[in-house]
Amino acid sequence: MNQTVNWDRSQLKIKNRIARKRYGYDSSISCKVHHEFAKATKKHEVIPIENVLKLPKFVQDIKLTCPDHEERFFVYCDDHGVPCCAHCLQNVHAGCRNLIPIQKLIQNVKESSLLIDLETTLSDLITNITNIIEDRTANLQDLEEQKTRCKREIKAHKEAIYAYVEELETDLLDNLQKTFIEREVKIQNTLKDLN
């Protein structure tokens, strides 16, 4: 029985909901039982639909069957960089020389140097992102401290300016009063002399 895996979120949710209503069980349980009895998929692990829906979009978009012929891919055409079903192989890729069976292509994928390099690169990327997050968090804290320090300095300068203006006002008022008294005395003396 060759079934096409359909990653459409709404259809997966609906299928699971119907199975629960009609049969009283999660549809992924029937898949699990089927995989346990089938020799080829005995070691496969069945995951809940909710977990499938949490996979990144590009993973959900991976096609397991040919979109033109609804048949499972069984070879990879290295000349064109595409997987092929039996119909594609006969009709489109008959003259291609670099055909690799899918099973051979994926058999050592976990030990391949490309995967190890990718894992190393991802690990380095995660470390770099973590360092960037820590650095930016420290920058935010420093920025907050600088803002607080600047506010304190502005307030201190404002108080110093106010104190200076107060002192200047006092000096000006004192000088004004002295000058007023001197002039007043002079004017009164002049008036006395004229009387």
Task: Provide a short characterization of the protein structure.
The protein has 195 residues and is mainly alpha-helical.
Characterize the structure shown:
With 195 residues, the chain is mainly alpha-helical. The chain is built from seven helices and three strands. It has a three-stranded antiparallel β-sheet. Strand 1 (75-77) and strand 2 (82-84) form a beta hairpin. The radius of gyration is 42 Å and the shape is rod-shaped. Mean pLDDT is 81; it is low at 1-7.
Keywords:
7 helices; mainly alpha; rod-shaped; 195 residues; three-stranded antiparallel beta sheet; 3 strands; coiled coil; B box-type domain-containing protein; disordered N terminus
Q: Multimeric state of these chains?
A: single chain
Number of separate helices:
7
Q: Give the topology string: H per helix, E per strand.
A: HHHHEEHEHH
Q: Average the pLDDT over all residues and give the rounded result.
A: 81
Percent strand equals: under 5%
Low-confidence stretches: 1-7
Going by helix content, strand content and strand pairing, the class is mainly alpha
Strand order of the largest sheet: 2-1-3
Shape: rod-shaped
The helix content is 55-70%
Report the count of strand segments: 3
Q: Please outline the major beta sheet.
A: 3 strands, antiparallel
Q: Cα distance, first to last residue?
A: 136 Å
